[in-house]
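Researcher: Go.
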Amino acid sequence: KTLIYNKMTKADIVAEIAEETGLERNEAQKAVEAFMTSIKTSLTKGQNVYLRGFGSFIVKERAEKTGRNISKNTTIIIPAHNIPSFKPAKTFVEEVKNKVIVK
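Model: Structure:
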């Protein structure tokens, strides 16, 4: 089906998984929560997560940079830090390109 920039919440994902698999809603919720916890745990350990055909959850390193505190009109140093990031697989990107209608 083709979407026009709608949103989907975790509750929607749980409902869809329950419907598709025949699992009880609370079992589907446990599975979604366990999946998310597993990804978060891996990333906090510095381990990237690769899901073939879907994408990669990776830890990206941000370099130290200079920023501005506008309210005090001062320069601040933002230290180097790591952030979680998602990189979709090429097949995933192509599917979205072909199925999502741009307004």
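Model: The helical segments are 10-21, 25-44, 90-99.
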